[in-house]
Amino acid sequence: MKTTTGKADIVKTMREIRDKLSLEIMDMTFAQEKEYIKSQLAELKLKRRDRKQTI
Known about the structure:
Elements (H helix, E strand, L loop, with lengths): L5 H20 L4 H25 L1
């Protein structure tokens, strides 16, 4: 039987991302959290769009 070690790395990475996000939004109100997430998504979309244009 094969064992996969990659899945554990994915879970560990996801937990690290979640912990970092929790620390960043810990003292924010719900409205501030929404704005923060919107801005992060907008930045991500811009990066992806720029990456597609350079290909």
